[in-house]
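Look over both lines:
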Amino acid sequence: MKKQTKGILAFAFLGGLMLTSGVLIAIPGFDEEVDYAAMNDPEVTITGTPADNFPDDQRTTFCSSGGDAKSTKYVTEYLIPTECTNPLAITSDYDGNAWFVETNTGNLAKFDPLTETFTEYDNPTWPNGGRSMMWGIDYAPDGSVWFTDETYDSVWKFSTIDEQYERLSYPTAGGDSLPQKLSIDGSQIIINDFTGNKLTILNVNPSDNDVNYLSIPSALDDSVTADFALDANDDIWYTNWLYQQGGFLVKFNQNDYLSAVSDSGEQFLPLVDFISAYALPVQLLTPNGITFSDDGLLWIVDTTSSSFFSFNPSSEKFIQYVTADPMFETYGNQTGIIKSPISRPYWIENDDQGRLVFNEQTANNISVMDPKTQSLIEYHIPSKNPNWGDCDSGISVLENCGLAQIFDFTISGDKIWFTEWVENKIGVVDTAVPLPVEIQLESDQIKLSPGDSANFHFIISPQFNNGNLGLSSIVSTTHDFLNVNFIHDSVETFQLEYDEPVPLHVDVSASDDALPGTYKILLGVESDDVAISKFLTVIIE
C-alpha cells in the first residue's frame, strides 16, 4: 500500500518550508470604532453580557436553553457565571484545575474543582463583539496555556503566572487557514490546519519570542487536515481527507527529517522520503480524532457515522467498531425526518489506564472504551438544548430533548472534564463511580460463513442493590450484512432486580453476500444515565 501511494503523493510533499514570525499583540483587520455586535441583527436587546453577540431569537439556541446545572451518579455539571460564553476547548493542569476557552468572549477561564469556583481572565485585545471557534488547547510545563483561534488565524499564549495574553500570527496560505487542535510535545507545538491543507509544527524561542514554523503539506488538493497523534517513535500521524469522499492516514517521520536537514545544511528538504500514507477504508469518511492505545494500535473516530476504527501499523489492517444508537431524547424525531440517528464521535484520546475516551456529539455522551476488555461505557450528559434536536413537532414539544453540543474534553486521572458549547456549562465524568451492572459474553468471538447464523447469549449481572433498575438492551452492528435478533423470551426492555442476573439470547447471522473479515457487534444495556456494553468479534470465513 505504501509503494502504491507514495508515487501519488510525491508531487505534494516536495516542500517543508521553515518560516519565521514574531509575536504580535494586536489583532489585524478590526476597527475598534465598529460595534460588531450591533451588526448581527437590529432585534438585539442590550444586556451588557456576551449574549449581545446574538439577536434575541437566537439566544436560547447559543446561550443556553435555561435551567441550572444538572447531575447524575456519574456526571456533575457547573454553570459558568458569565452568560453566553460558548465554552469549547478544555485542558487540565497538574493540580487538577480545568482550563477552557470562551469562544464568545475570547477569554480563558479556570475552574478549581476543590473550591468549585470559576476564574475568568479578560483578554484586553479581543475586539468588541468578536467570536471565534477555539478548538485546540494545551497546558505547558512552564505554566502557560496555549490555544488556537479559528477566526483570526492565531495561536494564543496565556501565562498563568503574570496573567498576560500574547498572540502569535499563524502561517496562512491565501487566507484559507483554520488552526484547530493543538498539542505541546516538548519544545514543539503541533497544530493541524483544518482547511489550510497542512500540519504545522511550531518551535518557540523564549529568548527572543521568535517562532519557527515547519509546515507539512497535505496529500490531497482542496482537502482538510484533521487531528494528529504521536507514536512511540515520535512519528506524527494525521488524517487528510475530502468531505464524504475519504482520504489518507499519513505518517511523518519527523526525527529522520530533522536529522537530514541538520546533516545537509539546507533550510528544508523534500518531504516525500519521510512520508508514508495509507488509504482509509471506504466506510471511514470523516476521520477527525485519532490517538494511540498502549498496544500500539491507532484509533480513529468517524464524525459522520456511529463508528470508530482501529489501525494496526504492522499489518496495515483496519477494524471497524460501533457505538450504541443515540437515546431517543437526544434527537427527538418529532417530525419524523431523522431516519437513521447517528452518534458522531468527534475527538478521541487515551488515558493513563490504557482506556480510550471520546465524545459522541449527537448522542450527548462522553464514552470510555477499554481495548483490553473490549468494553464500552457511554455516560449520558443530563443537560440538553432542544434547539439542536428535532424536539418540536409544532403540536407538542418533547421534554428533556436535544443536545448540549459537547465538542471537547480533557482527562485528569479518573475524571473527564468536558464543555457544553450551547448550554454555557462545563461538566465532569467520574469514571471511578461503580457501574450498576456487568456484561458477560458467552464467548469473545464467533465464526460464521456467509449465509450462516448462530445462537448467542450474554448475561446482565447487577453489581449492587439498585432496587429495580430499568434497562434497555443495546445491539449495534457495523455492517448491513450482519444481523442480530432477540430470540426465546429475551426482551428489549426489562427491570433488573438486585439479586437476579438476566440472560439475553440473540441470533447472529451473516447474509449470503457477507465479506470475509473481522467485524464487531456491540451487546449491552443502558439506563437513563449510562450505557454498558461489550464487543463481540465476528469472524466471517
